[in-house]
Amino acid sequence: MEELSILGENPEVFLQYDDLYSLNIGADYLSEFGVLIAKSKKKAKSKTDLEKIFAQTLQEMTYKLIGNNRVTKLDVFLTRNEDQLESEDNVRKYVVALSLGEDWADPLFRGPQSNTPEGKEFRSQFGDLSEIRKYADNSLCETVEWVKMNKNAYPEENEDILKSIPQRWLEFIVYKKLMVPEGSLSSVIKKPRQWTSLIPKSQLPPSFVHSAFAKLGKMFREVKDLPLAIVGVNCVSGHYRNTEPLQYCAAPKIVGSASKSAMKKLSTDENASILPLQQVVEVYTSLERNGKWGKVPTQIEAYKTLYYDTLSKELTKQFKCLTVPQKDRIIIKIDGVVFSMRVVHDEELEKQRIENENPQKVPESFTKHAHLAITAQKLHSISQKFSAFGEGVQLAKRFVAGAKLSNHFDPLAIELMVAYAFLNTKGRDEGNVKAMTPFSGFLQFLKLIATHNFVEQPLIIDMNENFLEETKTELIEQFKKRRPVLPPIVLITPEDKSGVRLMAKKTEPFAAKRLVELARRKWTELVERLAEGKHCDLRVFFTTKASIYDLKIQISSKRRTFYQVQKQLQQSTRDKVTKKCVLMVPVLEFDVTKRLLAKFETNFGSKVMFFYDEFETDKIFAALRPNFKAENVQLTLTNCPLKKKNLFTNETEVNLKALAEDLMILGQGTEEKAKKSTKKDSKKTKKMKKEEVKDEEDENEQEGSADEGDNDDSDEVNEEDSDDNDRPDSGNDDAADSDGEEEESD
C-alpha cells in the first residue's frame, strides 16, 4: 500500500467521496496494534509503516464484511495540520473517506443460510449482531440489522436513521474488530438530520405524493360525462420529485359546535395572525383535440374556466372528493394532498414555440408552460436514477436562499444546474460515477458554480443525450454571437435551445456574480475544514452577511410567512385528524413575505434591488442600484424622488430615510421596521446562529464545534474586511465572471 496522503493537497479529491469521518488514534493504540500484527507476515519498521498497515487492514475488513455493493472505495488520509509523521502528539487525527454503492441504505444485511459453513463463518464474524431470520422464500439466513426502524415515526425521521448506516459499519469494524477505543470515530458532516432540517420538515414522503397522484390519474381516466376527455396528466411540481418539502394539508381547528362547523371560524394557530403557508402540487393536463376552442387566447381561457367547473361537478358526483373550481385552475384534495390542476392547450403551446426566440416579450406565466411538462418528466427520471438528487436540490436551494437570492433564481433553474452536476460528476472514477449522498451531490453543485465560466460558456443540460456534438458546437457559436443580449447565466436544454426562458425574467448580473463569488469562497472554506477533519456545520455554512446591503426591512413576527408546526402525533392520530377535515381546504399559497416583496419590486424595482431568504422569512434586504446611487446627478422630475441635497457639500445623495418610510407605508403594517443595514447587524445574526447551533450539539461534538467556532470568528473578520468588494453598488455590474476579478469599491 502506498503512503498515506494529505487530504488537503488536492481539493478535487473531495468530489470522489460520499461520506467523511474523522478518526482519532492514540500512540498507545498504535503500539498495541503493532504487537497484534507482529505474528503476521506484515512487518512494521516505523510509525509510518504502522499507519499504512492499519489503513490497509481497515480497507480489507470493510470490503470483506460490508461488500462492494455497499462500499466501492475506502481511503484513509492524514489531515493537513499533521503532515509531519514524526509528530510528538499522543493523538493523531485521520480522515476516513467512503464512496458508497447502490445498496448502502439497506438496513438489512442478508447473509448465507444458517445451517451452512458459510453461515457459521458469518456468525463468527458479526457476533451478537447476527440473528436468524426467515425470508419470503422460506430460507433461514443469518442477518444483520444495522439500524432499527420506528414504524410510528415520521417518514423523514426514518430517512435520517437510514443515513446513519455507513457510520454503523465503521463503528463495528473500528471498535469491535480493530479494538480502537470507543468515541474515536465521528462524522465530519455532523448528524444528517441537522443539515436536512435546514428547510421546514416534510411530513409527507415522496411515496405518499406518488400514491395520491396515481389516484388522481385513475380518477381522470375513469371520470365520465365530460365534454372532452383528459388524455395526458403530468405532475410538474418539485414536491413530486422530492426537491421541495410538502406537508400534510393543514387540519383547521374548529371553533364552535361540531354540528355547525362549516359555518364557524376555522383556525390553525390561535397565536398567529395569519395562516401557515400551505403549498400545492401542480398538475398539467392535456385534452383531446377539438376545433371549437378557437385560436384567441381570451376565448381559450373562457373555455378552460367552464371546463374546470364541469370537471369539479363530475368529480364530486362520481368520486365524492373535494374540489374547488377557480378561474384559471381547479383545486382537488386527495389523501391530504392538495393538487392544483391546469389545462394546457395545444394552441397556447404552438404560440409559445413561435415566440421561443424572444421570451423576454412573453408573460412569465407563458415562458414555462411550453416545455415545463417535458422538463419535469426528465427531472423526475433523474430523481429516480439518483436517490440523492431530491435532497441535493434542497441543499442547493438552501445555499442560494442563504445568499439572499431566492427571488433572483427560478427553482427550476436550480434543479437543472444540480441535474447537470449529478450527470457530469467531477473527480469520479468509472466505477464510481454516481453521487450517492445529498452532501456529495451538493459538493458537485458548489464546484460547478465556482468553476464554470458562465460568461464564455453556456450550461448545456442534456438529460436524455439528445444533442449531437455538432448540435452542441452550433449552440455554442450562436451563444457567442448573442452573448451581449443574453442573461448572465444561460441554461440550454433540448426544449429551450435559446437557454433564456428561466433566466431572462429574474436573474440580474449582480445576482449571478454574487452567487459565483460566494460559491468560490464557501468552497474554499469547506475544503479547508474537511482537510483538517473538523466538523462542518452547514447551518453556519449557509449563513451570509447582511451588512453588504443598504436597508434591512424587518417583518413583524405575527405577519411573516411561516410553516405549519410539526406535532409529534402517532400515525393513527394523524389519520384521524386528516379524516376529520377531509371536506376542508385551508388558504393555499398565502406567502405574505413574497407578496410584499413583489410590491416592493413593482414600485421601487427601477431604483432598488431586493433580496430575501425564502426559508428565513422575517427579513427583506434592499440595495440601491448603481445608476440610482450615482452622486452629483442633476435633479429632474424623473429622478428627484428619494434624492436629497447635502447642505454641507452641496451634492445630491440618496435619501435612505425617505425610502425606508415609503417601504413601511407600502407594507401597510406588515413590516416592523426598516433601517440601514450595518456590520453590527451581520455580527449579531451570526452570533445568534452560532448560539442556536451550540444548543443542538451533543457531548461527542463539543470539541469539534469549539474548533469550528474559532474558525468562524476568524472568517468573520476576513469577510467584514471584504464587505466593500461584495456590495451591490460596486462599479462592476457585469455578468458573472469566472476569472475571479474583484469588484471596485466605493
Q: List the quaternary state of the chains.
A: single chain
Strand order of the largest sheet: 8-11-14-13-12
The value of Rg in angstroms is 29 Å
As residue ranges, the low-confidence spans are: 192-198, 253-271, 568-578, 691-725, 729-746
GO biological process, one term: tRNA export from nucleus
GO molecular function, one term: RNA binding
Domain Nrap protein: 15-152, 209-361, 386-543, 549-669
Family: Belongs to the NRAP family.
Give a written overview of the molecule.
Residues 15-152, 209-361, 386-543, 549-669 form the Nrap protein domain. It comes from Bursaphelenchus okinawaensis. GO terms for molecular function: RNA binding. It contains 24 helices and 22 strands. Among the domains are: 7-107 and 146-187; 538-726, no CATH class. Helix 2 crosses helix 5 (165-177), helix 13 packs across helix 14 (438-451) and helix 14 packs across helix 16 (509-531). Strand 15 (459-460), helix 15 (469-482) and strand 16 (491-492) form a beta-alpha-beta unit. Helix content is 40%, strand content 16%. The strands form seven sheets. It has a five-stranded mixed beta sheet with strand order 8-11-14-13-12. With 746 residues, it is an alpha+beta fold.
